[in-house]
Structure formats: structure tokens, C-alpha cells
Amino acid sequence: MPIEIRSEKPGDEAAIYELTRIAFEPMFFSDGTEAPLVTELRKDGDLTISLVAEINGEIVGHIAFSPATINGRHDGWFGLGPVSVHPNIQKQGIGRQLVETGLKMLEEDGATGCVLTGNPDIYSRLGFQSDGNLGYGSLDKQFIQWIVFNGPTPIGELQFAPAFGDEYPED
Fold first, then answer.
1. Out of 7, 40, 59, 147, which could bridge 163 as a Cys pair, Cβ 3.0 to 4.6 Å?
2. pLDDT at residue 165, rounded to an integer
3. What is the spatial distance between Cα 102 and Cα 51, in angstroms, rounded to a whole number?
4. Are 136 and 169 in contact (CB under 8 A)?
5. pTM beyond cutoff 0.85
């Protein structure tokens, strides 16, 4: 099945919302805010990169990248997430293609790096790492990961775009 990765275009919003909703619905860690989050990032102008994966013209994957700060400074850092793949075709490399395409775009645009909170077993395969020097509220630091394109490794406190909320996650 040929997969096309492309930038979001006007008219994709409803399909992205529904895909994100159903992709996260069965996840034990989901609180149901992922689909509204993408809408809020878009509304705020913080959806820096929004890519979709299509198969036969149907959107089956999506990834969002938005500005992030470390110690209150943007300095070219971007947050990855959420990333969604339709439940019927997960674990077939679509998420990986979305991540790799987005990271390449960020790097080509001169970004310093990309940060995320997620499973280290998954994201370490894509080049993300954690050394315990980057915090995000009370979240266990092993889940706070980064990839550097240029410059020093991040040290300090991470904060995502305002749509993610002003409060830090709880344990």
C-alpha cells in the first residue's frame, strides 16, 4: 500500500480530529484531550508542522510539531506530538515515516532540536534520548526525550505550547 506523506491542507481538519480521537481512544494513558489539542494548536498558530499520511486519498496518520521552550526560552526547540495512526494499521511504519519526515523538515528549517514525552523504547529507535537533565513538572525524566540538530543538549525545564495547558502533568 503506497503511503503519501504531505503537509496538512485546508479541509483536512475534521479528518485529523477524528483520526486522532480514534487513535488515542483505546490507549490507557490517553485522557481524551489529544484531538482537541491539535485543534487548539492550529487555532493558536502554534501548529508549526502538521503532516498527514494518506493511503488511497484517505488520511490514516497525523503528526503535529509545535514550539517548545526550555527554561522559558524557545531557542529553536519544537515539541513532537501528538502522533496518530489509524488503529487498523498501526505498527506498520506509518508513525515512523511521519516522525522522520517532520524531523527532517525541522532540521532543514534550522531548528535546534525536538523534544517529546513518550515511551523511550519507541522513541530511542528514532534517535531520541534522555540524560535526566530535562524536566517537565513531576513527570519521570526518562519519559522526557530530545534530539539535537545543532547546539548543546537541553538542560532545564521543558514547556510545550500554551495549548498543552499551563499546569504540569502529575505523577
1. 40
2. 84
3. 7
4. yes
5. yes
